[in-house]
Amino acid sequence: MVIICLAEPADLDALIAIENTCFKHDRLSRRRIKHWLGASNGIFCVAKLNGEVAGYGLVLLHKGTRHARLYSLALLPACRGKGVAKRLVMALEVGAADKGRLFMRLEVAKHNDAAIGLYQQLGYRTFGEYSEYYEDAEDALRMQKRIRHPRESHQVLPAPWYRQTTEFTCGPASLMMAMAGLDVAILPSRSTELDIWREATTIFMTSGHGGCHPIGLALAAHKRGFATACYISTDEPLFVGGVRVEHKKALIADVDADFKSKALKAGLNIHYSALDACALKKFVAQGYAVLVLISTYRLDNKKTPHWVLITAVDERCLYVHDPDLDEEEQSALDCQHVPIALDDFEKMSSYGRDKLRAAVVVHRPVKHKSTER
Question: pTM here?
Fold first, then answer.
């Protein structure tokens, strides 16, 4: 019988014996093992087989990051191949997630096929490599896995993920996901993506093609039969600050005014105030779809406005479908229900020097009652 539990000081001698048996290089010393047994910034678990310590896993929790690091994993040779290592890693993931970590990272020797296979089976993917990382000059693969997911106890928008097909259509892609999450009859497509962009574009951005105005997106959703509301932190023309040419600024202001005029005629609810995390959580809990404008600086070090769709909110995180896929570093799954700590999101959800905050709340399709004749 295998039991996974927290390591205790009484396990010290057994842990040292496992360390010396499993590793020829890069061994943890008795002093370091003793340190981690009492450290508050780590999770130290042991696997006990028939009451005896058969292996351990150690995760480090560094301050200032949302990542946990699987620092060491060891299992006695006689206990391998029985699923014990898998159970150890899974227990460490749960512990790290409960302490607010969103991702688990690790390093593994390139020649260690068994360990790599285990991590891949658990959902880890390679995102980098270290040359001559270990004492014996062996190279190491860097692997990562998302360990925080929306819980079944929280409201989750059943929106399909859609990848934007151009660099400037994150808004239309997010809106299509929102509408499809509210109405299964909606099928996201490139044709609709481009139609919405033409309807909602601001004409110009800092460079290249224009992005989408929140009121423009709300009008596009309204046109397709959805009730919408817009929350914007200012009533001044949006995105003007990122454009240097005066005639382009004037054109953006004209487009802004046109969107506002159309919204007034359509009876849309435009609120010149920002939504905080508490308000976002309430909308999601009520089954609404919420698009939020974020700055990508904390994602890619680029100060670019970017639309994402909120799919769930819990006590620690907000989860989003991100339509922008980086094929070199991501798979489609990496862009779905992406966890963002609430504190981090507060910083991400403002754009530019003016700290613009914008959100579009989309309701279920309006049902029109037929009249009898």
Answer: 0.77
